[in-house]
Amino acid sequence: MKTAIVTGGTKGIGAAIVEMLLADGYKVITTYGSDDGAARKFVQSHSEYSMGQLIVEKVNQEDMAQIAHFTDKLKLYGRIDCLICNAGATLRKNIDAITNEDWERIMMVNVNSNLYLVRDLFNELSSNARIIFIGSLMGIYPHGTSLAYGVSKSAVHALAKNLVKFFEGTGTTVNTIAPGFVETEWQKDKPEQIRKNIYAKTARKRFATVYEIVSAVKFCIGNAFVNGAIIEISGGYCYK
To answer: Measuring CA to CA, which residue among 39, 40, 36 is closest to residue 14?
Structure first.
């Protein structure tokens, strides 16, 4: 049985990725940051999977000690075939309101913790592993009130491209999925007028489903020649 790691896998895009991997026969170790209720509900709703095929760990990716402890535990599971860095944090503030702590938190969760996972698991990854980062359209198209988030996702895109060099010749691929607006918990309270404004900028006139993002993740897992790509899934988003 192949082993996959998915960060932030009990809600939204991450949960759908975990479900896909379980259905494909993977053993999945996933994390969540703070929502104990959502994690319990997720585990209960997937009780059909055998003991040990789905493992859920609480890991605050703002905390370097927790990340280190998590990677130490992962080394006990043997070879890792798939690492999907999905967990993220967002921040909607004008530049004059962003504190040092705000900025450092976003960079730690969205960028630094992902690097630490890849670095510390480098020797545990199988020779044909798949590393996939969940980036963002906001790392491509700047957004007025998501400066820290947009910059952090741009850094994630660059991180993935640079990591390709470190895995050259191993068979391991490193790719990024850059979703636009997706129907997840993050979007559920978005005012209708703002939704309509976004729809007007998107050729498909709607948000993506989580399963449309997951299909791109599955594509990257299955195609050994896709490497260093940033796959934009925006529905045809533009500035108009």
So the answer is: 39
Tell me how far apart the terminal alpha carbons of the chain are, to the nearest angstrom. Answer: 48
CA 85 distance to own-chain centroid = 4
Residue 186 CA to residue 11 CA, distance in Å, equals: 10
How many Cβ atoms are within 10 Å of 59's Cβ, its own excluded? 22
d(CA 114, CA 189): 28
Average pLDDT, the chain: 91
Distance CA 63, CA 172 (A): 28
Question: What are the start-end ranges of the H helices in 4-146?
Answer: 12-23, 36-45, 64-74, 100-107, 113-120
Span of 64-68, 113-117, 183-187, 218-222 with lowest mean pLDDT: 183-187
Residue partners of 208: CB distance under 8 A and separation at least 6: 179, 180, 181, 182, 183, 233, 235
Q: How does pLDDT run across 6-62, given as a tens digit for each residue? A: 999 999 999 999 999 999 999 999 999 988 988 898 888 887 776 679 999 999 999
Q: What's the sign of the alpha-carbon dihedral 29, 30, 33, 39?
A: negative
> Coil, helix or strand for 29?
strand
Beta-carbon contacts of 10 under 8 Å, excluding residues fewer than 6 positions away, are 18, 30, 32, 35, 38, 39, 42, 43, 56
Tens digit of pLDDT for each residue in 156-187?
999 999 999 999 999 999 999 999 877 776 66
∠ CA 102-138-198, nearest 5°, is 115
Q: How far is Cα 236 from Cα 204, in angstroms, rounded to an integer?
A: 7
Overall size of the chain counted in residues = 240
What confidence score (pLDDT) does residue 102 get? Answer: 95
